[in-house]
Structure formats: C-alpha cells, structure tokens
Amino acid sequence: MDNRIDVERVRDETPGCRDLVHLNNAGCSLPPRGVVDTMTDYLRNEASLGGYEVQRDRSEQIAATYTSLASLIGARPSEIALADNATRAWDMVFYGMRFMPGDRILTCQAEYGSNAIAYLQQAKRFGVETTAIGNDPSGQIDLAQLERELGDGRVKLVSMTHIPTQGGLINPAAAVGALAESAGVPFLLDACQSVGQLNLDVRELRCDVLTGTGRKYLRGPRGTGFLYVREDAMDAFEPAVLDNGSAVWTSPTAYEMNPDARRYETWEKNYAAVVGLGAAVDYALALGMDAIETRVLALGDLLRRTLADIEGVRVHDLGQSRCGIVSFTVEGVAPDDVRCALADNGVNVSVSKSTSSQWDLPSRGLTSVVRASVHYYNTESEIEYVGSLVDGLR
C-alpha cells in the first residue's frame, strides 16, 4: 500500500471521516475542511460587500481555478472552461456539432446514460447513427474493432466514457485517442470519474475535448464542472449556446466569440463554488496525483479481493486496468437492500442501475449492482469492516 499520503492528516482534515465510512466517492466525495472554509468565506464576503464587488476584488482567486485545473490535466488555462456540472460541459460541445443524416458516432459499450440519451436524441433529429464498439475479452473497448470502424469516412466523432459509472473498468483512453487522431476524427472524452482519481495528461490522452466534475474524486463542491478544449481544435467545434459571457456583441448585427475555451461558458456563475473547486484541485495537487492514483487503485484492489473472498458475493468489474470503483452483488439480497443494510451500519455506498448503462449491464444479465468507491482517505480497516458487514448479509 502506498505510504506517500499522510492518511491520518487527510482524515483529520475531512470532518465526515469521523462519523461514517464513505464509499460513495464515485457519487460525491467528502470535501476537505479547506474547501468548505474557502466557500463559506467567499459567501460571507458576498453578504457583506455584494456579489459583483467581491467578484471584482477576488478576480485573481477566481482566475487561479483555471490555472489549477490546467495544471491538473496538463493543459493551458486558456483551454479550460467552467460549467455547472460535467454533463452541461459535455453538452456544450456535443450539441454544438453539426451532424448530417448518415453521420456516425463511435462510442463504447460501457457508455454513460446521459451521453447515450444525447446520441439517441441526435439520431431522432438528424439521422445520426451511433455504434457502441464491443468489448474485447477483458471487457474494455475493443481497439481492433474501433480501428476498423474508423475506416468509414462517415464517422464524425469518437465519444467515450473513460471510467463507467457502473464499475471499475478503466477504458484505454490514450489508445483510443491515438486511433482517432490517426483517422482525423475528433475525440470527446468523458473523464467524470477519472479526474481526481487518475493522473491525467490531455497530451498523452490525445483528446480534443475532456470533461470533468468537481464533486466526485476531486472532492470539490456540487454544481461545478469543467471542460478542456485543445487550443488547435478550438474552431473545430462551436458552443451549443452563446451569451454575453461566451461572446461579445460587437455591433447591432454582429458578435465575436471569445478566442479561448471560455466561449463555452455562460456569464453567470456560482463564484463561491468556483473558488471551492479551485481549493479542491489545489488540495489534490499538493498531495500529488501519482500518490492519489496509487493509493486509490490499491484500495480498490483490496476491496475487490475482500469481497471476492466472501461466499455468495460476486464482483462484476471488467477490464485490464481497474480503478477505485468496485461493483458487486450478494446472492439472494437485492442491491438496494445491500445499500440500506450498509447505511444502517454507517457505510455509504450506491447502486448503479441499468437505466444508466443500457448497453452494458443488461448484456451481462444484470439490472443493478452495488457500487462501492474508495478514495485515498479510506483505510484498510474500513474495508475489512465493510467486508464483515457484507459477509453477515448472507
């Protein structure tokens, strides 16, 4: 187990760790005290001085959030835009694409429900065809099939979820990006579950666009998200909507979009949440993303092995590489009942349902799974405790 993170310190800086075992980090992590303090301080300042005035006075603090996010993923601040959540960040790019009848989108079998719904809507509107690339024997996206499909000149977008909501799979995003780049097809990467959990570099991933959220593994506030748009791909997309935050009204009959990624933003923001997001990113950067990834993956593997050793428990994670999300079922006990039983004993987990993964779970004969997702502030003793609770459910 990686020892580079002072677990006792980060637990002390995370008030929620005193009262529960939080294994719902793929839903919403527990924020560090510093994130909460940063937000409440900003809100108190607004209450005393006025929202516009504080925004002006704290412009450097707000700008630092862009710089921190850029540092987190190996981008430039000008390539970062903020959004209310990761789905809206994703929507701003996807719904700005001009599709024609017969155009094709390639995605993965483990794709997230919100994204899949968007593909289906564009199919109804414009006759777009979506192909969910099958899995290879390990359960990750089949790169050989993807390469064959990219030979079709009708393919206009490769869009993939890096880590699915319903399990521990880490799709090989860098290999997908390389194939898409070679074929000259834009690559949109949904990194909602991987940002803050894995050490990401957009140059290595070769994605044109990456979207992420604040509330999950970054341990930031809810209602925050962001997107990265590669500088030399900026004009390959057009935002789905524009307002006077994303463009300038230059004459009675003309406007100009912002030259950088902020063309994807809207004017109004929750600035207390923005600076809270910046504080969360800075916290992760101070710990080091290599150290975070190492510990999260090790704890995920420990939980996976602990559960797999219990009679009647089946772990359902796929892929060559697996993360801190662990999906499982208990024979004879419905996933919702497992969640409730664990909650009664101070353990937070979630349930992933087929409504979020219609191309994945039903194909494996599953309607829902228990989802337990670890973070670096979890401990080996907590995992042992959860294993004992699950063992007692049979």
UniProtKB/TrEMBL annotation:
SUPFAM superfamilies: PLP-dependent transferases (SSF53383). The keyword Transferase applies. The keyword Transferase applies. InterPro entries: Aminotrans_V_dom, Aminotrans_V_PyrdxlP_BS, PyrdxlP-dep_Trfase, PyrdxlP-dep_Trfase_major, PyrdxlP-dep_Trfase_small. It comes from Microtetraspora malaysiensis. Belongs to the class-V pyridoxal-phosphate-dependent aminotransferase family. Residues 22-386 form the Aminotransferase class V domain. This is Aminotransferase class V-fold PLP-dependent enzyme. It holds the Pfam family Aminotran_5. Coiled coil: none annotated. PROSITE patterns: AA_TRANSFER_CLASS_5. Keywords: Aminotransferase, Pyridoxal phosphate, Transferase.
